[in-house]
Write a structure and sequence with these properties.
alpha/beta; 5 strands; globular; 5 helices
Amino acid sequence: MRVLGIETSCDETGVAIYDTAHSGGQGLLADALYSQMEMHAEYGGVVPELASRDHTRKLLPLVEEVLTKANMTRQELDGIAYTAGPGLVGALMVGAATAHGMARALDIPVLGVHHMEGHLLAPMLEDDAPAFPFVALLVSGATPSWSVLKVLASISCWGNP
């Protein structure tokens, strides 16, 4: 299954294609990242409206870039995953609308992914994935601590997958 992943966070836009038929790090077919840090630095921090507008401008070109890098077409995608929160509402809406629109047009599944869980579980895609149980520290300036604790508690209850 080849899945397009879309992340629209407060200060970056990221897109990747992952093939679940390959194990570990071999599954990553292509990725691209656009940082908004330089734009926000001028204001001393993230400006939500500017972030959302910038995601709107950059997201589809990044999708095309990763498809080209992976030597694929949109029609070869089997699913789309996107950042569903927590995060800046405007930025999340851009990613969700793009993902849902593409999935509807391509008649493929779409899945919203918890932003912090995505970061926490990303190492599981590597060949040298950590063994369960494991301890992780996940820090985000925009995420309430209770959300991070909730994710960590749910992970610790999963046991060995």
